[in-house]
């Protein structure tokens, strides 16, 4: 197991900072995910860990040891890429054994035993003699994983390993990868642009934007307590309203959005307090409300929404999107788009409401 440190790591190309200064500490045995939109520096960060690139500034350290100048084959990393990169002319077994070409198997076992163990681990024991071309995408990716794990690496690096697979297979494979990772207890850095995937498998995620870390935290924390407007909008759906703080006491903050006033609890439900703690009267803020926290309280009856201190506001339904388990309803409120999760389609004018402890305020 290995602790990984990125200390002020930068990687510049001619006119771009692909990685613009990253400080992160990844613990022994942690499943750590780099997530963010295309071009935010995820792959470059992974390549810096693997040793395919050297940082322009800063250090990569494994267990405190600076890795600068250590070539990839001497770092003890296993890498799985998006496109499998299996050898088509070698059988599944030979592909996995290739991982042992330059390293002895760990634990004093023979190469044959090691390969058999790994095929068992990735649930492909019966398919050792097949050509990779005769396997499904998910199976091929499991071969690639077994090959990367064969020499017993101290660190596993996964670069969008699921992105070529269909949705159902992706879900199954990510559970398998997570299980294997916990069983081996191997420190893992996973790259994805898929925020749902990131939330589902990780111990912690780092949300990247323009080569920098916007927020690092456990999936729940990043989802429930986004630190910035970017994180609030990138991780899951969110309604973001521009507002101004008009009142504050020990337990609540009053925020004006358009012609409405909303109350937001200083302490969010079930979570540690976030930036709501630090806002003051007059601050410009973003009010964030998740679609699943918006409730429909009735029709467009003005009487119901006159009480200015409740969190009710009127909206007009534009479209209902049936998603199976839930329906995503797109509405408009005085020029603002509003999205909510509901158990059925809606139409016409509605009144929406949210709990004071379910909203979050971000300082602009
Ligand atoms: P994606 O999800 O699209 O793979 P990413 O988050 O992995 O994106 P990177 O591939 O790390 O992003 O790229 C980050 C930035 O650095 C991009 O603007 C990219 O064009 C640039 N970049 C990456 N590699 C090089 C290179 N070898 N030369 C010049 N620019 C590069």
UniProtKB/TrEMBL annotation:
GO cellular component: plasma membrane; transmembrane transporter complex
UniProt-listed SMART domains: AAA
Keyword presence, Plastid: no
EC number(s) per entry: 7.3.2.6, 7.5.2.13
Catalytic reaction list: tungstate(in) + ATP + H2O = tungstate(out) + ADP + phosphate + H(+); D-xylose(out) + ATP + H2O = D-xylose(in) + ADP + phosphate + H(+); L-arabinose(out) + ATP + H2O = L-arabinose(in) + ADP + phosphate + H(+)
A single GO molecular function term of this UniProt record: ABC-type tungstate transporter activity
Subcellular compartments: Cell membrane
Principal place of residence: membrane
Keywords tagged on the record: ATP-binding, Molybdenum, Nucleotide-binding, Transport
Residues of the ABC transporter domain: 4-235
Keyword Nucleus: no
InterPro entries hit by this protein: AAA+_ATPase, ABC_SmlMolc_Importer, ABC_transporter-like_ATP-bd, ABC_transporter-like_CS, Mo/tungstate-bd_C_term_dom, P-loop_NTPase, Transp-assoc_OB_typ2
Class in the EC hierarchy, top level: translocase
Topology with respect to the bilayer: Peripheral membrane protein
Domain of life of the organism encoding this protein: Archaea
Xref: PANTHER family: SPERMIDINE/PUTRESCINE IMPORT ATP-BINDING PROTEIN POTA, SPERMIDINE_PUTRESCINE IMPORT ATP-BINDING PROTEIN POTA
Family recorded in the similarity comment: Belongs to the ABC transporter superfamily. Carbohydrate uptake transporter-1 (CUT1) (TC 3.A.1.1) family.
Oligomeric and partner information: The complex is composed of two ATP-binding proteins (XacJ and XacK), two transmembrane proteins (XacH and XacI) and a solute-binding protein (XacG). The complex is composed of two ATP-binding proteins (WtpC), two transmembrane proteins (WtpB) and a solute-binding protein (WtpA).
Function: Part of the ABC transporter complex XacGHIJK involved in the uptake of xylose and arabinose. Responsible for energy coupling to the transport system.
Name of the featured protein: Molybdate/tungstate import ATP-binding protein WtpC
Organism: Salinirubrum litoreum
